[in-house]
Amino acid sequence: MNDSLKGLYLKEVWAKAPWRAPRILKVTLNMGIGRNKDDKAFVEEAVKELTMIAGQKTVTRKARKSISNFKLRQGEVIGLSATLRGERMWSFLDKLVGVVLPRVRDFRGVSSKAFDGHGNYTIGVTEHSIFPEVDPNKVTKAKGLEISIVTTARSDGEAKELLTKLGFPFAKGRVS
């Protein structure tokens, strides 16, 4: 996001107390491996693709304990994550709002009900191939992705106002 948008938001809404203005702390990207945890080629492809999407190396998440009902053993890779801060976070958010979300078929806006009650927002993406870094011709299986935006907002209303000012296209009059 450009600095003029952030500055405009601070002047417009939080003129009396700019230090209390909500801001975005970090963006986390999470991808679950699920049933494909035993397929080494799938895991390597997922790591490569999430690394390209995030613009930095991803961290593999391993099971903490064994659960026999899920056929899960301790130490197996069950997911991937990347935490973006600073300039990478702002460039990712700019790309998400300007390029990625408009590429979604029949896009009518993101849900305004995906706040967690503490000012954080999470978007679920069913196919990661909407990102321009991923070549859809080379993708073997569609992978889901979760994008969590962590803010310092004290309420969901403040967080929604912040994200709206930063260009997030919330759905109007739609229940989702």
What does this structure look like?
By secondary structure, the protein is of the alpha+beta class. The protein has a domain at 29-110 and 121-153: 50s Ribosomal Protein L5, Chain: A (2-Layer Sandwich), CATH 3.30.1440. 29% of the residues lie in helices and 19% in strands. The chain has a five-stranded antiparallel sheet.
Please name the defining characteristics of this protein:
176 residues; alpha+beta; 50s Ribosomal Protein L5, Chain: A; 5-stranded antiparallel sheet; 4 helices; 5 strands; 29% helix; 19% strand
Strands of the widest sheet, in order across it, are 2-3-1-5-4
Shape: globular
Give the CATH superfamily of the domain at 29-110 and 121-153: Ribosomal protein L5
Instruction: Let me know the number of strands.
Output: 5
